[in-house]
Design goal:
This protein is mostly helical. It folds into 2 domains: 33 residues, no CATH class; 139 residues, no CATH class. Helix content is 58%, strand content 5%.
């Protein structure tokens, strides 16, 4: 019997799917099974998306209230370490001797971060359960910039300044919001640059 595609060449095998005869040039060997090109293309096209994991979004959210544990549940170990360091840095900043304005800022930042951790763990677990890509998070800013590293550096600098007594001056207590304006402006500029 001759090949179904090349009628002048003798067949050396048959397609496992459709059974048509094929010459050595037409056969596609996949794990010892022979397929013709159209059948192999159809099989590759019908490959199922990645299987969803058994993550439980509700459990991830509950564990997310403990710093870093929600990220550990989602197997994001570096993110978990960053969560613990940011949480510890904010708590250390609140327990140090800083001006009243900074205490209020760090209190609000700690509250926002405690709300962020479970929501991030929930969104990640839900995306994994549905087999979707993980949603972007605050620790990876626009263009995957390491915002978490910037937060840790900023907290460290403020704590170091507090240790040396440089935060006791009246000028710093009234001018620290300039840092927030600069960071917000940088994020806005970066986002606009990425969209253009």
């Amino acid at each position: 019997m001759n090949c179904a595609v090349h009628s002048n060449v003798e067949a050396s095998g048959y397609c496992r799917n459709c059974g048509k005869p094929m010459c050595p040039e037409c056969t596609r060997d996949v794990g010892g099974a022979l397929y013709c090109e159209p059948c192999l293309a159809a099989k590759v096209a019908t490959v199922a998306p990645p299987a969803p994991t058994g993550s439980n979004p509700a459990l991830a959210m509950v564990l997310g209230f403990i710093p870093g544990l929600g990220a550990v549940y989602n197997a994001q170990y570096m993110k978990a370490a960053i969560h613990v360091l940011i949480f510890g840095g904010l708590v250390a900043a609140l327990s140090s001797d800083m001006p009243g304005g900074l205490d209020a800022f760090f209190g609000i930042a700690l509250g926002a971060f405690v709300c962020y951790m479970p929501l991030d763990a929930y969104r990640t677990a839900k995306a994994r359960t549905l087999g979707e890509p993980e949603p972007p998070n605050l620790l990876d800013g626009p263009g995957r910039k390491p915002v978490g590293a910037f937060v840790l550096i900023g907290i460290g600098v403020l704590l170091l300044m507090g240790n040396f007594g440089w935060l006791q001056r009246d000028w710093f207590e009234k001018s620290w919001p300039i840092g927030l304006v600069v960071i917000g402006g940088w994020l806005l500029w970066d986002r606009m640059k990425a969209n253009s």
